[in-house]
Amino acid sequence: MTLNKNDSVLWLAHVAKEFFPAWQDRLNRSEKQTIKSLGHNFYSVQFSSTPTRGYLSESIFSRYWLPVQYMWPTKCEEKGYIEKCAQGLLAKFKDKNFGNVVVFSLDRKQQKLASNLRGRILQVFSAKLKEKSPTKLLTEWTKKPVLQPIYNQTLIVAISDKCTWAGLSTPSEAGSFFAGGRRYVGVSNESIASRAAAKFVEATESLQLSGIKTDNAKKWLELGAAPGGITHELIEKKCEVWAVDKADMDEDIVENPLVHFYKIDAREFKVRMTFDALMCDLNGPAFLSAKICSEKTSLLRKGGIIIHTLKIHSANEFEKDYELTLKEFALQNCQFLYARHLYNNKQEVTLFFKKK
């Protein structure tokens, strides 16, 4: 096993392949980094110096970041390999402060190895983990990762068929509660399940990772609401929703007393009231969606959160559309928080703003 001498200079990143060129371009704006493909949308990035969290966030298309502090060849057929790995990790991290262990396979082919290795790591670190995290907590975090404290230091091990990497990180720093940034969302109502609902669930978790909670947002304006997947997620949280879309919505949702459906173009929505948050998933040209959504932020209370989906119709036009969108929201007195290409995003990026 080899100790990575430049602690937190080598990182693993998860990036959708279609956005790799844009991601690489953003990373190389200040200075060129050494990037190698590991397959399955994972890459290793060798920085010349330890990157800041803000710098990593600016890359936008990274779904997951893992600082590599230890790495070794994967030899799963070797006798005693799991024990050798566990003891090596104990020697490296025994004096480190962490309260959870996550092991995952980059290519999903090493799931059994990952499970067995995690079990042995938990055993060799049992005394340390008992001080930080009772067994009951570890079980809860395994079943429902979003219950982890966002700044909870975790020992993370990533396995591929050729190499295994390990490092310490937190859900907030990694950018996801879920191993490798792979967030599969089980929505509340399968009969109206939609990718939009999955995006919304992941978006609120992303805000949570940034220390921003939406629990107190009880009145939502939703633009581009049909067929109702996001609306259903909101009413499950006992939120009142003003849903706007030219298309039809699920009848059961429309009949819910918490839902006020306006079957109109979003530009025609004229209700004068104050909302706690705004969700926009409009289709159409990026500049038009940005203009419509940003203008509706006049209906938000101070501090209200905006979740805006920027549709990417052309990778070559992304930077132009992105800057135009930021400008439109700035004109409406909205503070840009950050942007992420969520696991459930496809040809789109989710932007987060706050009303000043």
From TrEMBL:
- Please give a single GO biological process term from the UniProt record: methylation
Q: Which CDD domains match?
A: AdoMet_MTases
InterPro entries xrefs: RNA_MeTrfase_FtsJ_dom, SAM-dependent_MTases_sf
Q: Which Gene3D superfamilies match?
A: Vaccinia Virus protein VP39
**Which segments constitute the Ribosomal RNA methyltransferase FtsJ domain?**
194-283
Entry's Gene Ontology molecular function annotations: methyltransferase activity
UniProt protein name = Ribosomal RNA methyltransferase FtsJ domain-containing protein
